[in-house]
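Predict the assembly for these two chains.
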Amino acid sequence: MKTTLDCIPCLIRQAIEASRLVALEPCLQECFVRDVLRWTSEMDLDGPPPLLAQRIQRRLRELSRVEDPYRALKDQQNHLALGLLPELQRRLNAASDPLALAVRLAIAGNVIDLGVKGSLSESEVRQALEQAMTEVFVGDLEAFRQALAKAERILYLADNAGEIALDRLLIEHLGPARVTLAVRGAPVLNDATRVDARAVDLESRVKLIDNGSDAPGTLLEDCSASFRAEMAKADLILAKGQGNYETLSQVKGNLFFLFKVKCAVIADHAGVPMGAQVLVHAAAAHPEPYGVRA
Amino acid sequence: MKTTLDCIPCLIRQAIEASRLVALEPCLQECFVRDVLRWTSEMDLDGPPPLLAQRIQRRLRELSRVEDPYRALKDQQNHLALGLLPELQRRLNAASDPLALAVRLAIAGNVIDLGVKGSLSESEVRQALEQAMTEVFVGDLEAFRQALAKAERILYLADNAGEIALDRLLIEHLGPARVTLAVRGAPVLNDATRVDARAVDLESRVKLIDNGSDAPGTLLEDCSASFRAEMAKADLILAKGQGNYETLSQVKGNLFFLFKVKCAVIADHAGVPMGAQVLVHAAAAHPEPYGVRA
């Protein structure tokens, strides 16, 4: 999807908050924000929002000399979400429709997007998950169930740290033997990397790859050839989170998006209400499709 | 006060929303937003936020060829607030401390800052006013009462349309004969101008002046010499709203700010909680005072 004017103040706010996270020196911080504003004034709005976010976060890492600014937050998110797994697994075991619950939980994990909002307590995360269980759900679970029944090679595109622990529940339900899990190729925001897949004990359970890119989404032209080959080989792709939706909504393929609607721009683009949990096939999400190139 | 980095995304969001209010052609809208971003990337952060807002709104009026983009909204705000006056006047007449209530109502009027948020229903405005009656109040009402007892020439700096109807209740309580009411010199956002003072029937009750400026605040260097002379002659100045606080917080003089805290930057600068109603003397608000120049 394209970047809208409404994305701009949000991207700038995110940049400012990120600059605080690494405690950038005030003069460096001002220089950084001025760079961001200048780039934004000249940006190509035909690209998706993660394209600018990628550039912003690269510059922040460069100026701060911090390789992974969100590492401590991501560790905290993983730890919190991992602590919830035993109880959630018991609920899954007792559920009348475990797939429906596993999908809900995986999307709910997308709520624990601390992003740049600082820290959340365990009780806040529990509350967010409980609320997520009763939120509006938009999507065709039966079509998803049928797609899963036929799939032999599933590529699962992870989104954030913390959330990736809840992805583990869904992946285990799908059957890890047929799943390849893809994380980002390098740190960006609180997006999950190989470090996070290891932290939630997923590396030992599935084939783990990274996409070779430091964009907070899946910018195909920025991903590695080996990642694109995996994408072309998969007969079903599950893409988690808004960043993957923003970058892949025009891709043609057997791809389902699973995300929580956290902003009005996405709600408008996907035609779904704010706050909803969404499970939507790419065929229903792309006005101008283009193919996945290996 | 200076412009903080956190003011920037907010000013940009305000610009985008304002461009929708005048239904700017998409290509003009993009050009406008790119201008705003470029100016922001080069702006002097030592100036107060209304300095950039002034430039943005000027450019919008120029591109849209609409002299007063917020006119219809301001008319609606005035009409709504005027409709509430008889009932509020009855409550004032029955109040044990009418000054305290009139101050609360005048500050509460600052809540009806539709700004660029579109339209509010009468019931929403009533609800906002009722809530405002019980909100946290920060300020020294007794010092204000004593200052009023001594004042012979009161200069009252208005803020928004709609709100100005509730200012009328306070002005009538103060005694209109000693009050000069100042509005903005030209349209900017939903700030009150002479049109609004007339609409709420204040022109016939007080000496009405304008400040000669189209900034959403009181930028002294941009105000007319006659306005600055009025300011220098006054022995007590009441300044309504965040915009006046942002532009006058460093002015030395017998000046009270009356406003509702609507953003975290102001809360931080004034050392008061978000959402609070504030009545604060300039002596408590300026770390680096400078004098009022006539």
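Confidence is low (pLDDT under 50) at residues 287-294 of chain A. Chain A has two domains: 7-64, 71-291.
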